[in-house]
Design brief:
Blueprint (H helix, E strand, L loop, with lengths): L15 E8 L7 H17 L4 E3 L17 H17 L6 E10 L2 E10 L2 E7 L24 E5 L2 E5 L3 E5 L6 E6 L9 H7 L4 E5 L8 H15 L3 E5 L16 E5 L2 E5 L8 E8 H9 L2 H9 L8 E5 L27 H23 L3 E5 L4 H17 L6 E5 L7 H14 L2 E4 L3 H10 L13 H21 L2 E5 L3 H6 L13 E2 L6 H13 L5 H11 L19 H5 L2 H14 L3 H12 L21 H18 L1 H4 L29 H10 L2
Parallel strand pairs: 1-2, 2-3, 8-15, 9-10, 10-11, 16-17, 16-19, 17-18, 19-20
Antiparallel strand pairs: 1-14, 3-4, 4-5, 6-7, 8-9, 11-12, 12-13
C-alpha cells in the first residue's frame, strides 16, 4: 500500500492528538526576546503538526526575576506581548499555553493563557504558591485557588478566568484539556484531579521548577502517578537555559505521560530550544474511564465537577492525511518492556503462576501433578512452573508425573525434546502411545481414516486431543493428583483448543492468563538467567527454536509439518490484536492502524530486550488486515463458549485475562458483524 491518501492513515481520525512541551530560549526579564522565542517555537510546532503546545511558567518575563515581577513597565510589556502572540496565532495550528503574570483587581496572578486561532480563550491562575526554601511567590502573587466563574480583562478583552475551566475542541470529540501551574501538582490535592473529573483527558502543567539532585525523578513520579490516577495524559514543561542562575539552575525538562506510560521526554540541560512531541490517544483515555467505575464514583464524591466547571470550546485546524504517529507502540504489549526492571518483571510474571499452582496444591492435598508433555512451548512452560512450585514447597520434582503421548503427527524432534526436558527437570516420566486407542475410536465412529483413507479433518485431530486429555484425567485419579493445564491465553482468545475432553480442560490451568508471546519470553528468560540447571536451559532453548504445531496431522510427503501460525496467524499479531481489543475496547480500524505502525518496519522502533534478530518480523497492511479479520471472527463469534467453561488459573498481566469470572464476560452466541463491518468500512 503506497497510497496514503485514504482516511485510514490520518491519526486524528483514530482519536490521537499531537501534543508538545516546548522549552524556548529565554532571556531574563527581556519580554520582547522571550515573545519572539515563543513565536519561533510555535511556528516550529506548526510545521510538526502539533495540536497542543505547552510552554513553561512565566515564560514571557522569565520566572526567576524576583521583585521585577512587580515593576509596572514589565507588567505592561507582558500584556503587549500577549496581544502580539494572540494575533500571530491566527494562522498557526497549535493551541498555545503560555505563562505570564497578569494583574486583576489589585492583585497579580501567576497565570497560564490559552490561545488558539487568533483568540485568547481563557486564563488560569496558579492555585498553590510555594513560599518555602528557595521560593517566595507569595511576595509577588495572589493565589487563584478559589477563583471560579470570573473573568479577567486582557488588552481590553474580558475572558474567562479561574480554576474551573476545561477547554474542549469543536473538531476532535475527546480532545479536552485542563491547566495547572508548577506547584499545583506538588499539592496534596492537585487541581488537575478535579479537572480530570470534569472531563479533561489531557492535563497540562506550565512549570518553572529549578533543578536539584533527584528532582527529575520526582517529576516523573508525580506525572506518572497523576496520569494513572486521573486516567489522563499529563504534559509537564519546565523552564530551561536562560533563566537566571543567581541562586538556582534549570534543566528544561519536558515530559508526556499517558495512563501511567511515558510517551516522550526532552533532552535536559539543552542549550537549543526543545520541542518534546508525542501523540496522545484521547479515545483510549475516554474508553478506559468507561471501564473504571471508581473514576465515576470519585466524580460523584466531588460533586460532579463536569456540571460546575465551565467548558470553553475552541476551533482549531488539525492536520489531515498521513502525518505519521509519534508515540512508542509496543510490538509485544504483554511482554515486559522496562529494560531496567526486566529481570524483576519476568520474575514476577513467572512466580505469579508458581504461587497460584502452589496454593492449589496445598488446598487439594494432592500427591502428584499430572502434565502432558509434548515438547512444545505451552507444556514446557507449565512443566517448569510446576517444577519451581515443587521446589518452593519442598517436594521432590518426581511429584510431577509427565506423560508424552505421541499421535499420528508427532515428530521425532518434539518427542525427543519432551523426553530430554522431563529427564533434565527430574520428574517422573512415562510415554503412552495413543495411536492404537485412536484407531479404535476412529473405527468405532466410522471415520474414513480407519478404512485407510488419508482424511485428516477436525474429527481426526480432536480424537487425538481428546484421548490425551482423557488419559491425563484418569492418570490423575489413579495417582491421587490433578491435571495441570497447558493451554495459554492466546489459544483461548482464538478458540484454538479442543473443547471439553480436550486441551481446553484441566483441573488447574497455570497458563490461562499468559499469552503465547509472553510464554516464549519467559522460557527464554528462564533459559538465560540461571533459573534452572544447565541441562534444562539447553533444552529450553531448543524448544524455543521449534516450529509451533499441534502435530495432529502426519507430515506431508515433503516432510512439512502442520503449522499453527499458518492456520490462525502469527501469534505476535494475534496477541497485539487481543491486547488492544480486550484491554481498551479499541475499534478494529484503530487496532489495524496501531499494528501497521508497530509492525511495518522491523528496523524501526524498540524490540524487547535480547529479542533474537532472526525473529524480528515485519508485516504489510494487507497481511495485518487479513489476520485481524480472522481474529475478529474467532474471538467474537466462535470461541466464547470455550472460554465460558475454562478451569481456574491465575491472571498474570494487567492486559487482562479471559476468565468468565474475571476480566472478560461475553455471550457465547454473539455475532462479529459489528466489528467486521467497521474493519471493512475503514481499513483499505
Amino acid at each position: 500500500m503506497t497510497d496514503r491518501s485514504h482516511p485510514f492513515f490520518a491519526m486524528h481520525g483514530h482519536g490521537f492528538v499531537r501534543v508538545a512541551a516546548s522549552t524556548p530560549r529565554v532571556r531574563t526579564a527581556d519580554v520582547a526576546f522571550n515573545r519572539d522565542a515563543v513565536l519561533a517555537e510555535v511556528r516550529r510546532a506548526h510545521e510538526a503538526h502539533v495540536d497542543l503546545l505547552v510552554f513553561p511558567e512565566l515564560c514571557l518575563s522569565s520566572y526567576a526575576i524576583d521583585d521585577l515581577h512587580l515593576q509596572s513597565a514589565l507588567i505592561e510589556a507582558v500584556e503587549a506581548a500577549i496581544a502580539e502572540i494572540v494575533t500571530a496565532s491566527a494562522d498557526l495550528s497549535p493551541v498555545l499555553l503560555v505563562g505570564a503574570a497578569l494583574p486583576r483587581k489589585g492583585r497579580l496572578y501567576n497565570c497560564a493563557l490559552v490561545i488558539a486561532q487568533g483568540r485568547l480563550l481563557g486564563v488560569v491562575p496558579k492555585s498553590y504558591l510555594p513560599n518555602y526554601r528557595e521560593f517566595y511567590e507569595k511576595r509577588w502573587f495572589a493565589s487563584g485557588k478559589a477563583i471560579r466563574n470570573a473573568t479577567i480583562a486582557v488588552n481590553g478583552q474580558e475572558v474567562p478566568f479561574g480554576v474551573d475551566l476545561v477547554f474542549a475542541s469543536e473538531v476532535l470529540a475527546n480532545f479536552r484539556f485542563f491547566v495547572e501551574i508548577c506547584e499545583d501538582f506538588w499539592a496534596a490535592t492537585p487541581p488537575s484531579s478535579l479537572g480530570a473529573l470534569a472531563g479533561a483527558t489531557i492535563l497540562c502543567n506550565l512549570s518553572a521548577s529549578n533543578i536539584v539532585i533527584g528532582k527529575s525523578d520526582e517529576r516523573h513520579m508525580l506525572c506518572r502517578s497523576q496520569s494513572a490516577r486521573a486516567a489522563a495524559a499529563y504534559i509537564y514543561c519546565a523552564a530551561g537555559h536562560g533563566e537566571s542562575t543567581t541562586d538556582l539552575a534549570w534543566d528544561g525538562q519536558g515530559i508526556v505521560y499517558e495512563l501511567g506510560d511515558l510517551l516522550a521526554e526532552s533532552e535536559r540541560f539543552a542549550l537549543d530550544p526543545e520541542l518534546c512531541i508525542a501523540d496522545v490517544d484521547c479515545d483510549r483515555i475516554a474508553m478506559d474511564r468507561l471501564r473504571l467505575p471508581t473514576f465515576n464514583d470519585a466524580a460523584e464524591v466531588a460533586g460532579r465537577p463536569e456540571e460546575t466547571f465551565r467548558t470553553i470550546p475552541f476551533a482549531h485546524a488539525p492536520s489531515t492525511g498521513d502525518i505519521g504517529l509519534v508515540r512508542p507502540i509496543r510490538r509485544f504489549p504483554f511482554v515486559p518492556a522496562r529494560a531496567d526492571k526486566l529481570d524483576a518483571d519476568c520474575y514476577e510474571a513467572f512466580n505469579i503462576q508458581v504461587d497460584g499452582l502452589m496454593r492449589r496444591m496445598e488446598s487439594t492435598r494432592s500427591q502428584s501433578l499430572v502434565i502432558g508433555v509434548s515438547g512444545g512451548l505451552d507444556s514446557t512452560h507449565a512443566l517448569i512452573v510446576a517444577a519451581r512450585a515443587c521446589d518452593r514447597l519442598g517436594l521432590p520434582r518426581t511429584t510431577i508425573r509427565g506423560y508424552t503421548m505421541p499421535g499420528f503427527g508427532t515428530s521425532e524432534g518434539t518427542k525427543s525434546n519432551a523426553w530430554k526436558l522431563m529427564n533434565a527437570v527430574g520428574i517422573t516420566a512415562e510415554e503412552i502411545d495413543i495411536r492404537p486407542a485412536a484407531r479404535t475410536m476412529l473405527k468405532d465412529i466410522g471415520h474414513p481414516f480407519a478404512g485407510g483413507e488419508p482424511v485428516y479433518d477436525v474429527t481426526f485431530e480432536n480424537v487425538q486431543a481428546g484421548l490425551r486429555t482423557d488419559y491425563l484425567f484418569r492418570l490423575a485419579s489413579q495417582h491421587s493428583g490433578f491435571v495441570v493445564g497447558t493451554g495459554d491465553l492466546s489459544e483461548l482468545a482464538l478458540g484454538w483448543c479442543t473443547y471439553g475432553v480436550g486441551d481446553q480442560m484441566s483441573h488447574y490451568a497455570v497458563n490461562a492468563g499468559v499469552p503465547k508471546t509472553l510464554i516464549q519470553y519467559l522460557i527464554r528468560w528462564c533459559a538465560t538467567t540461571g533459573q534452572f540447571e544447565a541441562a534444562t536451559e539447553e533444552i529450553l532453548l531448543s524448544i524455543l527454536a521449534t516450529e509451533i504445531s499441534p502435530e495432529l496431522v502426519p507430515a506431508g510427503e515433503d516432510g512439512e509439518i502442520q503449522s499453527t501460525e499458518g492456520k490462525i496467524g502469527p501469534y505476535e499479531l494475534n496477541d497485539f490484536f487481543l491486547h488492544h481489543i480486550m484491554r481498551f475496547g479499541q475499534k478494529p480500524s484503530k487496532v489495524a492502524f496501531l499494528a501497521w505502525h508497530a509492525w511495518r518496519d522491523a528496523a524501526a522502533g524498540n524490540w524487547p530486550a535480547h529479542f533474537p534478530e532472526e525473529k524480528k518480523n515485519a508485516y504489510e497492511l494487507a497481511t495485518i488486515r487479513s489476520w485481524l479479520e480472522q481474529f475478529l471472527r474467532r474471538f467474537f463469534a466462535f470461541s466464547q463458549f470455550k472460554r465460558s467453561a475454562i478451569p481456574n488459573g491465575p491472571k498474570v498481566s494487567s492486559g487482562g485475562a479471559l476468565s468468565p469470572r474475571g476480566d472478560w464476560r461475553a455471550p457465547s452466541d454473539a455475532s462479529a458483524a459489528v466489528w467486521l463491518a467497521e474493519l471493512d468500512a475503514r481499513v483499505p
